[in-house]
Design a protein that fits this description.
Layout: H1 7-13, H2 31-51, H3 55-61, H4 67-99, H5 101-121, H6 125-138, H7 142-152, H8 158-184, H9 190-209, H10 224-227, H11 229-232, H12 240-261, H13 263-271, H14 275-304, H15 306-326, H16 330-341, H17 346-355, H18 363-393, H19 404-423
């Protein structure tokens, strides 16, 4: 796995975090520990991506290869997985604030690996469904890994660090489905075995190299009131600017579900792309996303600041979505992909700004709340966009436009950009 682009950022992340006056200093982590966090996120996304091409096929095999029933059941699987993320992301984030990041990350990696093995051995649909539920719980550890990065990164460098996490997502998004598709040709259960092995190796590696990033004296108290998904969102109301930036992120998360739910349906309907062409375009989306996170966020933030880069990313992302809807040819659609992927400038900078508005004891809760917003968007966003797409291409449509779901996504991101302008007007960027 190529990780060279991480080196410039990792060298700077490996510093004590800059915190408010009077806060106890953070222990300086070993470089291998910081590298582990990037690797663990990459491998988590890689493993999830590996099972994506084969899970629908496995579900269908338990239903006598009835595609219609399989589509319904698979939709339930996706909703339940998002629900588990919504419920457990704040819980694991709060537990990491109380007991430290290390045990949460390692136990989640261990649980995810064992769960993939259970899914590989699943004798029926019920076992597969149970495995998907557990997968949703254990995958909720990603916010804890992001809180680890916030623990060990100076506030002014957090946007670059979160950008590298975006690059890890892009890398996993590119390699995972491709590897899963190749392995699935031999056996639809093989990707589950490989994904499980990757997660277990990751847990074993972390056991030896990952130190704790949150010293005991800086840990907060655990509270069920804050650890539930609704209670965790109370933190976002603690500062008006924090709440407004959270709203910006939430609108973006809703818009992002158009890629998950409607992308393949759209390119198949409008451009008659083959599966190979559609897969290549998704790989291009992931590759561009990786370039933005790894190579553009850090220098642009250094030159223009978090606010300007966030606003530029939002406006460019919205323009890219509009380009998808307007593209009358496949070439036009491809040309809009890099523009849309510049949206990746907004997420890391927004999270960087938010992390500077909470205390060290609340970083896990913050990341859990952010992931709860992402999961909440995943509960209803896909249904909204697929319904809009179906209505826009139906024979009785008042305005027949297959690009309608992408116009809606563009509108949501443009709205979030306007909100961001006002949410960060006072931008004196508090340190810590």
């Amino acid at each position: 796995m190529e990780l060279d682009p991480l080196e410039p950022v990792i060298g700077e992340i490996n510093l004590p975090a800059v915190e408010p006056a009077g806060a106890p200093p953070t222990r300086e982590p070993r470089k291998a520990a910081v590298m582990f966090i990037f690797i663990t996120i990459t491998l988590d996304i890689l493993a999830m991506g590996m099972i994506a091409p084969v899970l629908p096929r496995l579900v269908s095999s338990f239903l006598g290869n009835d595609t219609a029933r399989a589509a319904q059941v698979f939709g339930v699987f996706g909703t339940v997985w998002a629900l588990m993320q919504f419920v457990f992301s704040p819980l694991l984030g709060s537990l990491s604030d109380r007991f430290g990041r290390r045990p949460v990350v390692l136990l989640s990696n261990l649980g995810l690996g064992l769960d993939y093995f259970v899914m590989a051995l699943a004798p029926n649909l019920a076992w597969l469904f149970a495995g998907r539920v557990v997968s949703g719980v254990t995958a909720a550890s990603i916010p804890t890994a992001m809180a680890y990065i916030a623990d060990v990164t100076p506030p002014e460098k957090r946007s670059a660090a979160f950008g590298m996490i975006g690059a890890a997502f892009g890398l996993g998004f590119v390699l995972g489905p491709a590897a899963g598709g190749l392995l699935g040709k031999y056996d639809p259960r093989l990707p589950f075995w490989v994904a499980g092995a990757l997660s277990l190796v990751n847990a074993l590696y972390g056991f030896f190299v990952l130190p704790e990033s949150l010293p005991r004296e800086r840990r907060g108290r655990f509270s069920w009131k804050r650890a539930n998904p609704i209670g965790s969102l109370v933190l976002l109301k603690s500062h008006r600017s924090l709440f407004n930036i959270a709203a910006v992120i939430f609108l973006g998360y809703i818009a992002h579900t158009v890629l998950i739910s409607t992308y393949i349906l759209y390119v198949d309907y409008r451009y008659n792309w083959t599966a190979e062409t559609a897969g290549f375009s998704l790989a291009f989306v992931g590759a561009c996303s990786g370039v933005v996170g790894a190579l553009l966020v850090k220098p642009l933030v250094k030159r223009f600041g978090d606010r300007a880069v966030m606003l530029a990313g939002l406006f460019l992302g919205a323009t890219g979505f509009a380009g998808f809807g307007l593209a009358s040819t496949g070439l036009g659609f491809f040309l809009a992909i890099p523009v849309m992927d510049l949206w990746g400038l907004a997420g890391p900078t927004a999270q960087g700004l938010m992390s500077r508005r909470v205390s060290p004891q609340e970083q896990g809760q913050l990341q859990g709340a952010i992931n709860a917003l992402r999961s909440a968007a995943g509960l209803f966003g896909p249904v909204m966009f697929t319904s809009v797409f179906a209505a826009a291409i139906s024979p009785g449509a008042l305005w027949r436009s297959p690009g309608a779901p992408f116009y809606l996504a563009a509108g949501l991101v443009y709205a979030s950009a306007l909100l961001a302008v006002f949410a960060t007007r006072e931008h004196a960027e508090p340190q810590g």
